[in-house]
Amino acid sequence: MRGLFKDEMVVEEKLSRGEDPKIYEVYEVPQQPLSGLLSLGCTFIYPGKVGDEYYFTKGHFHEKEGASEVYIGLEGEGIILMQSRSGETRHLKITPNVVVYISPGFAHRTINVGASRLVFLSIYPSDAGHDYESIAETGFAKLVLESGGSPMVVDNPSYSERA
Ligand code: PA5
Ligand code: MN
Predict the structure, then answer these.
(1) How many CB atoms lie within 10 A of CB 132?
(2) Which ligand gives the minimal distance to the CA of 40?
(3) 9 burial class (0-12, 13-18, 19+ CB within 10 angstroms)?
(4) Which residue stretches of the chain have pLDDT < 70?
(5) Residue 93 DSSP class
(6) Which atom belonging to ligand 1 lies closest to the Cα atom of 110?
(7) How far is the CA of 62 from the centre of ligand 2 (A)?
(8) Ligand 1 proximal residues by C-beta, below 6 Å
(9) Which residue of 29, 45, 60, 100 could cross-link 24, Cys pair, CB 3.0 to 4.6 Å?
C-alpha cells in the first residue's frame, strides 16, 4: 500500500493497526519472452478503498514502445486509466465481456470501482516487458475516487507538482 495511494496518513494508520490487506493478485501462464508469442494473465482486484480512493493496480508502461495489450472483463466493475509519456490521458470502463484495447505507448492502471472483486484477462506480446519506474516517477495524472457513492475520475493534484 505504501507510496501508491494519495492518503499516505490513512495508509500509515491502517498499517499501524496491523491492516495490510491484499489489494490484487495476478496469475500468469508461463511464457518465454519471444517475438510473436503472446502472454496471458488474469488479474483479481479485491474491493476496497484507502480513504475515498478505490483499490488499483500499480500500473506500468511496456518497455517495448510498440507493444499494445488487450483486456477482457470477466467479473465486476472497473475503470482503466491510460496515459502516454507526453501526458495524454484516456479512461474506459471494464465490465464483464467488455474488451479494452491499450494502445502502444500508454501506461495502464486498473481500478476496482465495484463492491465485489474485479477480474479481467490480459493478453500481450510476451516480449513487451514491464516498466514500472517511469510512471511511478510522475504518478498518474488522474485519480479514481468515490464521491457520493459513485466513482469519479479527477485530476491528481500531486501530478502537476511532480511532472
Ligand atoms: O499485463 C498487464 O497489464 C496486466 O496483467 C497487469 O500486469 C496486472 O493487471 C497487474 O498490474 P501491474 O502489473 O501494473 O501491477
Ligand atoms: Mn500491461
Answers:
(1) 12
(2) 1
(3) exposed
(4) 161-163
(5) E
(6) 9
(7) 6
(8) 26, 41, 43, 57-60, 69, 108, 110, 122, 124, 130
(9) 45
